[in-house]
Amino acid sequence: MKSEISIKINDKVKAEYAKGYPLIAKEALENPGILQTEGSILKLVDKQGRFLAKGYYGLQNKGYGWVLTRDENDIIDQAFIERKLATAIGRRQSFFTNPETTAFRVFNGEGDGFGGLIVDYYDGFYLLSWYSEGVYTFKDQVIAALQNVAECKGIYQKKRFDTKGQYIEEDDFVAGERGEFPLIVKENGVNVAVYLNDGAMTGIFLDQRDVRNAIKQKYAKDKNVLNTFSYTGAFSVVAALGGAVKTTSVDLAKRSSSKTIEQFSVNGIDFENQDILVMDVFNYFKYAKRKELKFDMVILDPPSFARSKKYTFSTSKDYTNLMKEAIAITEKNGVIVASTNSASFGMKKFKGFIDKAFKELRGKYSIVEEFTLPSDFRVQKEFKEGDYLKVLFVKLG
Description:
- The protein has helices at residues 11-19, 78-91, 93-96, 133-136, 139-149, 209-219, 234-241, 255-265, 281-290, 315-328, 347-360; strands at 4-8, 23-25, 41-45, 51-60, 63-69, 103-108, 117-122, 125-130, 154-159, 173-176, 183-187, 190-194, 224-228, 246-251, 275-278, 295-300, 305-307, 312-314, 330-340, 365-371, 390-396.
- It is of the alpha/beta class and 397 residues long.
- α2 packs across α5 and α6 (209-219) runs parallel beside α7.
- The protein is globular.
- InterPro entries: PUA-like_sf, PUA_sf, RlmI-like_PUA, SAM-dep_methyl-trfase, SAM-dependent_MTases_sf.
């Protein structure tokens, strides 16, 4: 069993922890120098030594670890993890019984009471994502607990940490039987080819499920659709299935082309009728303007930070300009799907970026629909940063 280290929380923030704030922030700690080994169990106390919470030490983003319980008698062991997993699975029963969607999030880190650990479900297979060396020290207990509370065909993992905070490349298979890839999962009836054993990404970002469904059901019919930063083309696929006249997918990554062709193909769509371009999105905007191309719908879902040979893109600095580029090639009454997964600002600020773009271009717009994370991506109300996804359907004119 892991030994516990008492660590003092300063008076400024102790009330936050008493209320349930889950991230152990460096600036909250009076004596961070005593922390040596990631994975150590931390007992958070105030300056008088009164118990506040228990958690673990694991360096991740801006944090030094996560609070796991506010019960002093809890022991952080396999049984504790089993209870957390069983509760999380119970909350998602409606997903498990829906044959139209066979890929979803089962355990969403601090939203389900154990920050740093994510568990996703892909048609019988479970994928664990570890976000710090600290949380990875619980690996054996988590795997044993998961096998006790769920029927697992096989378990894969992604180690999303190393000393530089990068993903660690390896085979990723952990337990059970190996999958045959691509594994074809369903999302609202749409086929998706996923790989659990091939690099950091699986081929689909599960948090955009509701957005993709809205595009397919309500927005795509008879439209000419541009999908920028298109990755494996999931937005393009749902647009085509929703009756789009044509889709154009643009991404700088070389493999985006073959991956997008694969996603069209597993849905029986002739990819040769769609445009799939490997190029810098900003160069494409210039090209589209030069050729006077216009789209009924433009999808903007950039990474929070991206770098190409000529451009560096950071959401908080550059989204307004990106939006202006999109407005210039969108038809009157067209729709821009503006999306960001940046946790560093909230919806209000994001709406400000959009508003600024239209003001600078003296354009009119209305927000017709907005989305945050779907229900399987459970968030904690005390930790607003956890609800990172912001998507606006913006209508021009």
